[in-house]
Design brief:
The complex is a heterodimer of chains A (315) and B (355). Chain A is an alpha/beta fold and 315 residues long. Chain B has two domains: 206 residues, no CATH class; 124 residues, no CATH class. The chains are: A alpha/beta (315), B alpha/beta (355).
Chain lengths: 315, 355
C-alpha cells in the first residue's frame, strides 16, 4: 500500500489544478509512531503532505458532514461505505465529491503491537507485508496479518464501493471470514454472564465520547447525552449512565454501521465497544439481508417497510 | 531537607508500616495499562510503569464528585436543605507519582485556591495527600517536560522525591509532610555524603534523554488578538473530532460543570469534569455559544493553555509536558506542533504586542 501515497498525491494535484475540487481530504504523516492525522490540501503544493500507510484507520467520511465545497476524498473500503451512507442520509451530495478510492489491505492495531513489544516504540517502519517496531534495545517485525485491527481482519469490503478515481488495482477480498464469532459467543451467554461481561467491558470508560465523535454516523446537532431539556442521561460516572450512553449510541448505528473500527481505535482506554454495533450489524444481516453502505439506490432497512420484513416481534 | 536511603528489601515492610497511618495509592496495572488505585493490603505500587495512561488528577479532583446531598421529602424537617456529602480526608500518600503530574497539581491549585475563592473539595483532598514522587529515569519519547517548566526530577509539588539507585531508593525529603511519611515507614538510614552527587548525576542523565521540546519564549509578549485570529487554526482544528480525550487525560485541565441529580425524593449536587471540546461547554442560557464551532473549541484549548494562562499567572504555560494528549489523541493533534505555530507566529513579529 506504500506506493499508494504517490498516486494519491498525483490525483489530488490534478483535481486541485483543474479546479474540479476545492479541497482534498486525506492523511498527513503523524508526529508519533502508528498515527496519521486527517488533513486537507487546498492547493497543488499542499498535496505533498498527503501520505498513505497502515495507520490511516480513522474514517474520513466523518469529515464530510454538511460541507458545502466540492471535495476530493481519499477513501478505503469502509470510508466509501460511510460516504454512501452519508449521501443517502443527505449529509453530503454525490455531485460534491470526487472519491479517490483506495483498495485497502487493512490497518494495523497499534495497541496490539505495543503489547507485543518489550518497551516504548519510537519508530515503526512498514514494508509490503508487515511492520517493524523499534525502541530502546529492540527491533521486532510483525506480519501484517498478525497485527491487523480486529475489524480489518474480518473485513470483506476492502475495495471502495464507489469511486471516481482508483489509486491501484482492486485487492482480492478476504474469503471464508467468520465475521461474527464474537457476537455468537455473546449471544450464547446467559443474561447474568452477559451483564457481567458488559459491566467489565465498560468499567474503564471515562465518557470522553471519542467513540461517538470518531464515528461518521454520529452527526446529530445535539446528541441525546448532551440534551439538557429534557436531560435523558446523567452526566456523572454512574455505571448506569455510562451504559445508557453506550447502548443508545450503538442502537443509533443499527443498520448504518460499517464496522470501520474508528470507535474502538479512538478509545483512549481500549474498550471494544464494537461488540454492540456488531451484534446489530449481524441482526441486520440475519433479519434483512442488509449490509450498510453498499448501494446508493436501496434504502436502509430501518427507514423502509417491506411486506416480507420479519414481524415476529408483533404479538 | 535530608536524604534517606531506603533499601529495596525494606520497601515492602516499610509500606506495610506506613499503611497504618496513611491510605496508600499507587500505579497498578490492569489489563492493558496502569492507573492510580488504592493499594490493597500488602499490594506494592508498580514502579515499572513509565507513566499511567490517564493522569492522577482524579485522586484530588474526581471525575464525578458528590459535594452536597438533599431530600425533597417534605415530611422530613431537613427537606430542601443542602448537606455536605461525607468525604474521607484521612491522610493518604500517593506513591510513584511522576514529577510532571505533581507539578500539575501546583498549576491547578492556582485555580482552586485563590485569595478570593477556595474550592473546599479540591483543597481538602489535596491537603490530606502526601505526594511521594518517583523520578523518571526513562522518560517517554513524547515527553517534553524540560521545556514545559518541569523535568524528570522536578521537585515542585512533591513531598518526597524518590530516585531508583539500584538496590535502594534515594528519598529526598522535601517537606514536613514528606518527613512524616518517611517516619511512618520507619526508614531512618540517612544517605551517605555522595548521595547528592549521585542524584544530580541521575538527574542529568534523565534530562539528557528528553528528546522532545516546545518553544514558548515568545508567547507572553505576543498579541492575544493576533494569535486568536491566526490563519493556522483552520488547519490545526480540521482533524479534531471534539472528543474529551486530551482534556480528560490532561493533568492540568481543571474545568468542571455542576449538576443536580434527583432520584425519587433524594438527590445529590455533583461536580463533573467538563471539557472545552464539548458542545455544552460555555453554552449560554439563551442558547448562544460563543464557542459554537470546532475551530472555536480547539482554539480555546490551546489559547487557554499557551496564552491566557501565561498572561494571567506569569508562571509559564498550563502544561507540564507529560505528553499524554500527544499519545492519546485519536487523530494526532499534537500540542508541541501547535505550540510551535503559536510561538513561531509570535516570534515572527506578526503577533507582537504593540507598546
Amino acid at each position: 500500500m506504500l506506493s499508494y501515497a504517490e498516486k494519491i498525491r498525483e490525483i489530488a494535484g490534478r483535481l486541485l489544478t483543474s479546479g474540479s475540487v476545492e479541497m482534498v481530504i486525506g492523511f498527513r504523516q503523524g508526529t508519533v509512531p502508528m498515527m496519521n492525522e486527517p488533513h486537507f490540501a487546498k492547493t497543488p503544493a499542499q498535496v505533498q503532505a498527503l501520505v498513505w500507510d497502515s495507520h490511516c484507520g480513522i474514517n474520513l467520511a466523518n469529515y464530510l458532514t454538511d460541507r458545502k465545497e466540492k471535495i476530493g476524498i481519499v477513501a478505503k473500503g469502509c470510508d466509501s461505505r460511510n460516504i454512501v451512507t452519508h449521501i443517502i442520509e443527505n449529509k453530503i451530495k454525490r455531485e460534491q465529491l470526487v472519491v479517490i478510492g483506495v483498495p485497502c489491505k487493512g490497518m494495523v492495531d497499534k495497541r496490539k503491537i505495543a503489547m507485543k513489544c518489550p518497551g516504548e516504540i519510537t519508530a515503526v517502519i512498514e514494508d509490503e507485508a508487515g511492520v517493524t517496531a523499534k525502541g530502546g534495545g529492540f527491533s521486532q517485525r510483525f506480519e501484517k496479518k498478525d497485527v491487523l485491527q480486529h475489524n480489518c481482519s474480518l473485513c470483506i469490503h476492502r475495495n471502495p464501493v464507489i469511486h471516481d478515481e482508483l489509486v491501484a488495482e482492486p485487492v482480492p477480498e478476504q474469503q471464508g471470514v467468520d465475521r461474527y464469532a464474537d457476537v455468537r459467543s455473546l449471544e450464547a451467554m446467559g443474561p447474568e454472564q452477559r451483564w457481567k461481561y458488559v459491566e467489565e467491558l465498560l468499567a474503564p470508560c471515562v465518557r470522553c465520547y471519542a467513540c461517538r465523535n470518531a464515528c461518521p454516523l454520529c452527526y446529530c446537532p445535539t446528541c441525546f447525552v448532551d440534551e439538557a431539556r429534557p436531560q435523558w442521561v446523567g452526566k456523572g460516572q454512574d455505571p448506569q449512565d455510562v451504559r445508557a450512553f453506550h447502548f443508545l449510541r450503538a442502537y443509533h448505528c443499527a443498520g448504518r454501521c460499517t464496522d470501520c473500527g474508528s470507535c474502538e481505535r479512538s478509545c483512549p482506554v481500549g474498550i471494544n465497544m464494537r461488540v454492540f454495533t456488531k451484534k446489530l450489524e449481524k441482526d441486520c444481516l440475519d433479519l434483512f439481508g442488509w449490509e450498510a453502505g453498499l448501494s446508493l439506490e436501496v434504502r436502509p432497512p430501518l427507514d423502509t417497510y417491506r411486506p416480507q420484513d420479519p414481524n415476529d416481534f408483533i404479538k | 531537607m535530608k536524604m534517606i536511603a531506603i533499601p529495596k528489601k525494606e520497601w515492602p515492610a516499610g509500606l506495610a508500616k506506613a499503611a497504618g497511618s496513611f491510605r496508600l495509592f499507587g500505579p497498578v496495572k490492569e489489563k492493558e495499562f496502569h492507573s492510580f488505585k488504592r493499594l490493597e493490603n500488602g499490594q506494592l505500587p508498580d514502579f515499572s510503569c513509565q507513566n499511567t495512561r490517564l493522569s492522577p488528577k482524579h485522586l484530588v479532583y474526581p471525575q464525578s464528585e458528590v459535594m452536597l446531598t438533599y431530600s425533597l421529602d417534605e415530611s422530613r424537617p431537613d427537606h430542601h436543605i443542602m448537606k455536605e456529602a461525607p468525604a474521607d480526608t484521612s491522610p493518604r500518600a500517593v506513591l510513584g507519582i511522576r514529577p510532571c503530574d505533581a507539578k500539575a497539581f501546583v498549576l491547578v491549585r492556582m485555580n482552586f485556591d485563590t485569595p478570593d475563592y477556595k474550592d473546599p473539595y479540591w483543597l481538602r483532598a489535596y491537603e490530606s495527600t502526601t505526594f511521594v514522587g518517583l523520578s523518571c529515569a526513562s522518560p517517554c519519547s513524547s515527553c517534553f517536560c524540560t521545556t514545559a517548566g518541569c523535568g524528570p526530577f522536578h521537585e515542585e509539588g512533591l513531598d518526597v522525591l524518590l530516585a531508583d539507585a539500584g538496590d535502594h531508593f534515594l528519598a529526598k525529603v522535601l517537606t514536613e509532610k514528606g518527613a512524616a511519611w518517611v517516619a511512618a515507614g520507619g526508614w531512618t538510614q540517612t544517605a551517605d555524603a555522595k548521595a547528592e552527587g549521585r542524584l544530580a548525576d541521575l538527574r542529568q542523565a534523565a534530562e539528557a534523554k528528553i528528546a522532545s521540546q516546545v518553544q514558548t519564549e515568545s508567547l507572553k509578549a505576543a498579541d492575544t488578538t493576533a494569535l486568536y485570529n491566526a490563519g493556522f487554526w483552520e488547519e490545526v482544528s480540521f482533524a479534531c473530532i471534539n472528543c474529551g480525550t486530551c482534556t480528560y487525560s490532561c493533568p492540568t485541565c481543571w474545568c468542571f460543570d455542576i449538576q443536580d441529580e434527583t432520584r425519587g425524593t433524594s438527590g445529590v449536587r455533583m461536580k463533573n469534569w467538563d471539557s472545552c471540546m464539548y458542545p455544552l461547554f460555555t453554552l449560554h442560557g439563551t442558547g448562544h455559544n460563543p464557542r459554537g464551532t470546532k475551530l472555536h473549541r480547539v482554539r480555546q484549548r490551546f489559547m487557554h493553555k499557551l496564552k491566557y494562562f501565561v498572561d494571567k499567572y506569569d508562571r509559564g504555560i498550563q502544561c507540564v509536558g507529560c505528553g499524554r494528549c500527544v499519545r492519546l489523541c485519536p487523530v494526532n493533534i499534537d500540542i508541541r506542533r501547535v505550540c510551535g505555530l503559536m510561538n513561531g507566529l509570535a516570534a515572527s513579529g506578526e503577533a507582537c504586542a504593540i507598546d
